[in-house]
Design a protein that fits this description.
The protein is an alpha+beta fold and 591 residues long. It has three domains: 221 residues, Rossmann fold, CATH 3.40.50.300; 188 residues, Jelly Rolls (Sandwich); 101 residues, Jelly Rolls. It contains 18 helices and 31 strands. The protein has a seven-stranded mixed sheet. The protein has a six-stranded antiparallel sheet with strand order 9-10-13-20-15-18, with no helix packed on it. A hairpin with a 7-residue loop joins strand 7 and strand 8.
Length: 591
Amino acid sequence: MNQFSDNKSNYDKYPVVNVPNKSLTCFKGWQEITEELDCKIKSINKLKKIIVIECYQGVYKEEIKQSINNAFPEAVFFDSEEAMISEKQINEKFRDEITDDEIFGHLTTYSLEDFFSRGKVANLKKRINKSTAELIFIYGTGAAYIQDESDLLIYIDMARWEIQMRFRRNEINNLGVSNLNERPSIQYKRAFFVDWRVCDKFKKKLMRKWDYIFDTNTSGHPKMISGKSFWAGMEQAIKQPIRVVPFFDPGPWGGQWMKEICDLDKDVINYAWCFDCVPEENSLLLGFGDTKFETPSINLVFAFPSELLGNPVHARFGDEFPIRFDFLDTMNGGNLSLQVHPLTEYIQEKFGIPYTQDESYYMLDANDDAVVFLGLKDGVVSDEMISDLIKSQNSGKFDVEKYVGKYKVKKHDHVLIPAGTVHCSGANSMVLEISATPYIFTFKLWDWNRLGLDGRPRPINIEHGKNAIQWERTESYVKNQLINQVVKIGEGDGWIEEKTGLHEREFIETRRHSFSKSVLHKTNGSVNVLNLVEGREIIIESPSDSFDPFVIHYAETFIIPEYVKEYTIRPFGESIGKECATIKAYIRTHA
């Protein structure tokens, strides 16, 4: 059917968590939404009714205001951002978090209230109290801070990927400033370190109070569900296998494999990344009948952290999802940038991040010439390598193979990359990257003298990188500890279980199961994340019938909440009678 497979793609790009309660409704379009709101508002037995519309950063708030005003022309609107401190004050207050660095900042410890002026808040509240209008809407980011007691609380959430698209289209500002024409990468950095942190912290305080939640990720096509419906969706999601909504993005080294295997737009130049399981970035689709409601998948972590992650994992990581699966496609593409990730103490000290990006490359596919660059050559002199890296920024030349080990890889190899190890995947590989979550912290050392898709040089981070490189990780270390550390640990009727990593410095454990019959899995205190790395399709079932059977197709990543406890996986459909394989990751919860 295509150059990478004999089969037609069966990859599901829009997986849904179906909410079984038929009485729950998703309202579509402004007419349905405002009719429902009108009914709800009329049921409030008060002369003066105050409605709060809290907005996540990136919402088209004026579009929201105008659409609601069209339905309620008698209403008076107050914009919460009128009470914010000035743009100059915001930039000064968050200067240490934002920094002058093109990529890196420092994770803020401030809260949303720190964007507001006490005096302006008092004046705005006074105006609201003095208003003689019978219907008042307070809208914008921080609206629920301005008016913490309201007759109706509406929350308008945003998927982070859509926020990034709006940055790229120069359509939105960062929180409290006018910078929509700033470079998208700079806006993203600011959002990552500041805006999303304060918005998420505030969101968590409000979640149990939501009367309604909006999905406005597709402009002009709003959807709305009740708080009851939202929580029904969250409760359903932790009781079953789930998939988050993947997103795909081109890059300067991107390849062609995902176009075919995942059935993507053939007119796009390439696809470099697929974020197939990064709950901080991905969304969940909740199904209400035939309607799909999009909500950030991090909301599930906020809503039920212990049930999703498991108590030991929640105790260690809080309400963060510490495992990431994503694709790196260089098939008919180019090498990734030569890079290194910081050690834990460095990322804590410099960026305020509690843990670092330890990772691994699982080779989902590979051509005969596929390689990884990993670790250092024996005898490398650190000062000489750093000097040549610095010179390369002007000369456009760097002899990678003089300093960095180069190793052939094939399909199903597993390469371990603890933080501090110089690495990159070469061309003609399809990598399933299994890693810890703080993916922004990649220190690029050399990028093969190429430009990004925006025509600009991609930022190089030699100064950070030289402080991260672990110079003792040379050829013997790599061969003995990092490549194919596979050990068979179990075998039964129609299945084999192998330990494939990760490194002892990493908190993620991985297990590969090869099977032609049913295999029993247990969560053992940690959320499980898996990918079908061999086979057309499998089915996940509950031994106690606690969830409906769940079908997974080749290359799809799926999550098993710890709440599920145990599940079976067996070949299904076209794969019955054939051998399949999954790779599973979980957090080590005991020695």
